[in-house]
Amino acid sequence: MSEPIAYAPTQPSREEIDALAGLTLLEFGAPWCPHCQAAQAPLAAALAGRADIRLLKFEDGPGRPLGRSFRVKLWPTLILLKDGQELARRVRPTRVEEMAELLAAARG
Fold it and tell me: pTM of the entire structure?
């Protein structure tokens, strides 16, 4: 069995996320979600050597307003932000290539 995913159980406000400087990758999911589990290795591979991108992982679900503010419907949803503005997103990515395409938006 794989290691549980370390999603933050508490979330900042949308205003705090919008105020983040630089590049941030948000991951919304649930630790029991098989799609989220399958995305972890490709995500780690795509982020290798990308110290310029901050990764924030949030547990999503009912009563979690941050995911709703980004219109998250399926897990995992990855959203790349620059200075709080959305650059790109991927829903249920499974391959390193999909992750790399998402992160390429940072070079825009």
Answer: 0.94
